[in-house]
Specification:
- The complex is a heterotrimer of chains A (315), B (332) and C (496).
- With 315 residues, chain A is of the alpha/beta class.
- Chain A contains ten helices and twelve strands.
- Chain A folds into two domains: 140 residues, Response regulator (Rossmann fold); 133 residues, Rossmann fold.
- Chain B has 332 residues and is mainly alpha-helical.
- Chain B has a single domain, classed as ABC transporter involved in vitamin B12 uptake, BtuC.
- Helix content of chain B is 76%, strand content 2%.
- In chain B, the strands form two sheets. In chain B, strands 1-4 form a two-stranded antiparallel sheet. In chain B, strands 2-3 form a two-stranded antiparallel sheet.
- In chain B, helix 5 runs antiparallel to helix 6, helix 8 crosses helix 12 and helix 9 packs across helix 10.
- Chain B is globular, with a radius of gyration of 21 Å.
- Chain C has 496 residues and is α/β, with parallel strands linked by helices.
- Chain C has two domains: 232 residues, Rossmann fold, CATH 3.40.50; 242 residues, 3-Layer(aba) Sandwich (Rossmann fold).
- Chain C is built from 17 helices and 22 strands.
- Classes of the chains: A alpha/beta (315), B mainly alpha (332), C alpha/beta (496).
- Chains A and B meet through helix 1, helix 3 and helix 4 of A and helix 4, strand 2, helix 12, helix 14 and helix 15 of B.
- Chain A: This is Monosaccharide ABC transporter substrate-binding protein, CUT2 family.
Chain lengths: 315, 332, 496
């Protein structure tokens, strides 16, 4: 067994060496076909929109350059850093032209990212930040700002007074935790706004619905909701409809899942503060492609947040 | 009647050796593993690359360590659903000892593995003394150990694991990943224990018929507790190695070690009802799962299809095993 | 014409011809007794005529038609296995009438309908249980009768095969089974009756067939033959039926002393076992004899009392210590307490000889094979190979393996609980001889048996039990049968 490993390892080293040697003027290396791998955190509708954006970018590159571009979308079945590393490493073995990852945990993913860097495979991160000390271009939006847009809007429609509740998402997910904390910061600025309950939905619509229903039972005077993940507001919306409290309890949502858009159209939710997954997917592929051509790329691209209301949801 | 005894060996030594080999319980799963390995090598140009093989081997190593423990328990007729959280909690403990308490990392590893053994001991002693089914009990202890992880970490990973022990998870020896080597050593030890020692024979006896084992004077409860201890220590070892691999102690370590090892053992011919199967078979089962997970990514199978594809491969593989077994029985 | 006919029936297994050229006719309304030693081919024959296995040669004709061409004919043949195969956690009614479609139920299963129907069967078979009782809560004889009743709910049944239906029953209960069998005769049903008990064979049987080594060696009508002839046909040699197996060496000093022992199903039991003695325990099924022995052995918990071995206090409640101290218990329940079903014969025996076979490099396969082969030879265990799964061996051969395994542990005290249950006459004699030899070496032996004949042949002394209490202590050479039976029934014969 070890002999096999050694002899095959030698072959691989030679292969990587020859590739590194091909250096031309920045952005002038061109190929007939590209294959990029997108590794999200987990199978989830939000990441489908990332994938949509990645496909859009692939079509754009094909139209502009005539090269063929293939996107391999490879998602862990569970949000588990070990499984994600396994997928990153298996993808490295297929020698793609670039890998874009939404890191589950920067430190936990470090070894796999180092493998890719060592083998000269371009990397881009989206919706997450690189491990300390690693220089990888990343794309994202300000989670705290996204949350604050939502909570400020809720305060506004409540007239700066009333009882509110926060749905926290997955407490151990850093981006969810940041959003929940920023919601709290906003509410703390207003003396007549009282946070009466916090729920945990684990990024699951059904759990969000059960939690929201229970919290509204326990707090009949509740006036409004914000959430910290994409599944949360959808479950809360369902709970509001089932309790017949439409219009009585306000909801400012998060992100742009189709169900979220429906809730806005139906008037159950006032609005939603959305990160822009399509943009993140689009620019992930663009950054990977640019790296593959040898072009210098920026360290960080901010895709910003969109504010969705009844007026712009279909436009 | 003595003529009846003579007819069997009289059929020719080669034929009977051949038959024994064909009927060996481990042959089915081994041939499935070989078929899947060869098919993967033929179908994907990336599969046989040294990097990919080391990825598969390393990924397999962690879950295989837990599988050794779970399969040993299954031979006894027990199941421990808390092995995953024992691995996770022991990993967190190593991290806290090394990083927060600043203890010598090697000592921290020894403490964490012993701690896993203690958690296994708790499962074992409660199962035997309370005469509970281990499955029921460990649903509870899995919750407790898993809850302890969240209490200790508040969901946040412990970073800054010392570099000096990271080679245990990341390093290689002659091109082979360290965790895989450690797993192989444990496998050899476990195989020796179960096949060649009285202790191992007693494990099979207990799994076959616990009452009959007591009637023979086998120290049934002591052996059961010891195997729980062993499984706990192996899971802790997996957790510690994974911490060394990741360079952080993740609260999610062990989440994938609950059903995976049971599935691997069952695919490998270890019955959940006890007394049947071999540890090596269980590891081959884990190997089959690891290769399937790998080629699915190599082929770029859509994540929405992965469950169906990997499930179908497993069903086809075990049907092949079962059908060939029936065919062999009919032949003889 | 016979309803069920076997013509030139044969079945080969690797290395063994289990059945060869056997002709048997089972007539409607008659009892056909099938006798033979363990492994003579009776079970193979049953499997072939019930359609669970296919013959290698020959033909089975049911109602004059070839069953190979009409496999649905096998539904006319009902079979009641020797081992209980009921669902202990389900009710009597459910056990009796499953599968529901066969007992004429369609659609939803309604408890009230099931239980009403069940009561008539319980009355006819004299089963003392309510339809709603859980099977695990009714007595063993009632369970045995329930199995027979279950077979008879098959409305298609024309032939009923009973495989040793009486091995767990006392004479009174055996009579209940026989009443049922005679009732079947009147309804024109043919019965195949498999038994090792000669008195029962002659009591119930009309026709007989003797199998030996897979071949038919004798057949005819029982009215024309005697017991001697059957036994000679079964064993192929003349056996001394009257032989005594009591130890010929005088008893030694007291070995085991039991004082005021109480536990599950028994109270205040005291007795002494001497070296070189075979001490018999007589009583009805359920009189607490097995429980006493399992308590002394440490398998069950004692409620009170003391046990001492060689004058020193004996630790109760720990079978490991008991075995280490030289006490062994061979249970009546081979399936539950004796064999390890998924392991081979070698592994089953090998478990007890690890002291012999173990080395720093682990168990030596060669030494183990040699030791196991010796035991197979010494105890005449009939098997195609030592690697055969023990559950594929016949009951008698399993029992010999268990005894051989126990002997390898060099015991001081041996407790045999119904060691010859379901075992043929010649193997019985072998087991008696083994016990005698051991006792003469100074080992103390306790023999629990429901066969008075067995106790009188082997035991030096017989203790009788009734309802968990000792009712008598007899010298077997001088005790008369009526005294013994009186002590077993504790003179309260009217309520039995």
């Amino acid at each position: 067994m070890s002999k096999l490993f050694v002899s095959l390892a030698t072959v691989a080293c030679l292969a990587t060496a020859s590739q590194v040697a091909a250096q031309d003027a920045p952005g002038t290396v061109s190929k007939d076909s590209y294959r990029f791998v997108i590794v999200p955190k987990v199978v989830h509708p939000w990441f489908d929109k990332v994938n949509d954006g990645a496909q859009m970018a692939a079509a754009a590159i094909e139209a502009q350059t005539g090269a063929t571009v293939e996107i391999n979308y490879s998602a862990p079945q569970a949000a588990d850093v070990v499984q994600q590393n396994q997928i990153i490493e298996s993808s490295i073995a297929t020698r793609p032209d670039g890998i874009a990852v939404d890191l589950l945990d920067p430190e936990g993913n470090r070894a796999s990212l180092e493998d890719a860097a060592y083998q000269g495979i371009p990397l881009t991160l989206f919706d997450s930040v690189p491990p300390e000390g690693m220089n990888i271009p990343y794309i994202g939006s300000d989670f705290c700002e996204q949350a604050k847009i939502a909570s400020r809007r809720l305060v506004e429609i409540l007239g700066e007074e009333g009882q509110v509740a926060i749905m926290m998402g997955v407490p151990s997910a850093p981006n969810h935790a940041i959003r929940a904390e920023c919601h709290r910061e906003v509410f703390a600025e207003y003396p007549n706004i009282e946070v009466v309950a916090e729920g945990i939905d684990n990024d699951d619509i059904q759990i969000a619905q059960q939690q929201a229903a229970a919290i509204m039972q326990a707090n009949p005077e509740l006036d409004g909701w914000v959430a910290s993940d994409a599944a949360g507001p959808v479950g809360i919306g369902q709970a509001i409809v089932e309790a017949g409290k439409q219009g009585e309890v306000q909801l400012v949502g998060l992100d742009n899942l189709n169900e979220m858009l429906d809730l806005i159209r139906d008037g159950v939710a006032d609005s939603s503060s959305a990160s822009q997954p399509e943009l993140q997917g689009y620019w992930s592929v663009m950054l990977l492609w640019q790296q593959a051509t040898g072009a210098p790329v920026p360290n960080f691209i901010d895709t910003g947040n969109a504010f969705l209301t009844k007026d712009n949801v279909d436009g | 009647m003595s003529d009846l005894q003579k007819t069997a060996p009289g059929q020719g030594r080669e034929a009977s050796v051949m038959r024994a080999l064909l009927q060996h319980p481990i042959l089915g799963v081994l041939s499935v593993l070989v078929v899947i390995f060869v098919a993967s090598a033929l179908l994907s140009p990336y599969f046989l690359t040294p990097y990919n093989l080391s990825v598969v081997a390393r990924g397999l190593a962690f879950v295989a360590l837990v599988t050794i423990g779970q399969a040993s328990l299954m031979i006894l007729g027990e199941l421990d659903l808390s092995l995953g959280t024992i691995g996770g909690l022991s990993g967190i403990l190593t991290g806290m000892l090394m990083v927060n308490a600043g203890i010598n990392p090697w000592l921290a590893i020894v403490i964490a593995i012993s701690f896993g053994a203690v958690l296994g001991f708790i499962n074992g002693i409660l199962t035997t003394k309370l005469r509970l089914h281990s499955l029921v009990l460990t649903i509870g202890t899995a919750g407790i150990y898993g809850g302890a992880i969240l209490v200790l970490t508040r969901g946040v990973a412990i970073t800054g694991i010392p570099r000096e022990i990271q080679f245990l998870g990341r390093g290689t020896l002659l091109g082979v990943p360290m965790p895989f080597i450690i797993m192989l050593v444990m496998l050899v030890l476990a195989a020796f224990l179960t096949i060649k020692t009285p202790f191992g024979r007693y494990m099979y006896a207990i799994g076959n018929n616990r009452d009959a084992a007591r009637m023979l004077g086998i120290p049934v409860d002591r052996i059961r507790v010891l195997v729980f201890v062993m499984a706990g220590a192996l899971s802790a070892m997996a957790g510690v190695l994974l911490v060394a691999r990741l360079g952080t102690a993740q609260p999610s370590i062990g989440d994938a070690w609950v059903l995976g090892p049971i599935a691997a053992a069952v695919i490998g011919g270890v019955a959940t009802t006890g007394g049947v199967g071999m540890i090596a078979g269980a590891i081959f089962g884990a190997g089959i799962i690891a290769i399937i997970e790998n080629i699915i990514v190599l082929f770029g199978v859509s994540p929405y299809w992965q469950g169906i594809v990997s499930g179908a491969i497993v069903v086809i593989a075990i049907s092949f095993d079962a059908i060939s077994r029936q065919w062999l029985r009919k032949e003889s | 014409m016979a309803y069920l006919e076997a013509r030139g029936l044969g079945r080969d297994f690797p290395g063994v011809t289990a059945l060869n050229d056997v002709d048997i006719d089972v007539e409607s309304g008659r009892a056909h007794v099938l006798v033979g030693e363990n492994g003579a081919g009776k079970s193979t024959f049953v499997k072939l005529v019930t359609g669970t296995d296919r013959p290698s040669r020959g033909q089975i004709r049911i109602d004059g038609k070839d069953a190979a061409e009409h496999p649905d004919l096998f539904r006319y043949i009902a079979y009641v296995p020797q081992e209980l195969s009921l669902f202990p956690h389900m009710s009597v009614a459910e056990n009796l009438l499953m599968p529901f479609h066969a007992s004429g139920h369609r659609g939803l299963v309604r408890r009230r309908t099931l239980e009403a129907k069940t009561q008539s069967y319980l009355d006819r078979f004299g089963i003392a249980a309510k339809p709603s009782d859980l099977v695990r809560n009714i007595s063993v004889p009632d369970q045995q009768l329930l199995q027979i009743a279950r077979a008879s709910t098959n409305t298609d049944m024309r032939v009923l095969i009973l495989d040793e239906p009486t091995s767990a029953l006392t004479p009174v209960e055996v009579e209940r089974v026989f009443r049922v069998v005679r009732d079947f005769h009147e309804r024109g049903i043919g019965v195949v009756f498999i038994s090792h008990k000669m008195d029962e064979v002659f009591d119930i049987g009309d026709d007989y067939t003797v199998l030996r080594n897979g071949k038919k060696v004798d057949a005819g009508q029982l009215a024309d033959v005697d017991e001697d002839r059957l036994i000679r046909a079964m064993s192929g040699q003349k056996l001394e039926l009257g032989t005594m197996f009591r130890p010929k060496v005088p008893r030694g000093k007291p070995l085991l002393t039991v004082t005021g022992l109480s536990g599950r199903k028994f109270d205040d039991v005291s007795f002494t076992l001497d070296r070189g003695e075979i001490l018999g325990f007589a009583g009805l099924v359920g009189s607490g004899r097995s429980e006493i022995m399992q308590t002394i052995f440490g398998f069950l918990k004692a409620r009170g009392g003391r046990v001492s071995l060689d004058g020193a206090d004996w630790p109760l409640g720990d079978t490991t210590k008991s075995v280490a101290g030289g006490m062994l218990y061979l249970s009546e329940e081979r399936k539950h307490h004796g064999i390890f079903p998924h392991l081979s014969l070698r592994e089953n025996i090998g478990l007890s000889i690890t002291d012999l076979t173990n080395s720093p490099l682990g168990i030596s396969a060669a030494r183990e094979r040699a030791a196991v082969d010796d035991i197979i030879k010494d105890y005449e265990i009939r098997t195609a190979s030592r690697e055969k799964k023990i559950s594929f061996l016949s009951g008698g051969n399993q029992q010999k393996a268990i005894i051989g395994r126990a002997m390898a542990m060099t015991p001081k005290i041996l407790i045999f609980d119904e060691p010859t249950k379901g075992i043929d006459v010649r193997t019985k004699a072998q087991i008696y001889k083994i016990m005698q030899g051991l006792a003469e070496q100074g080992i103390g032996i306790i023999l629990v048996s429901s066969e008075m004949d067995e106790l009188r042949k082997c035991a030096s002394r017989i203790i009788t039990m009734h309802s968990g209490r000792i009712t008598g202590d007899f010298d077997s050479a001088t005790a008369d049968s009526e005294q013994l039976v009186g002590a077993i029934f504790a003179t309260e014969t009217e309520h039995v």
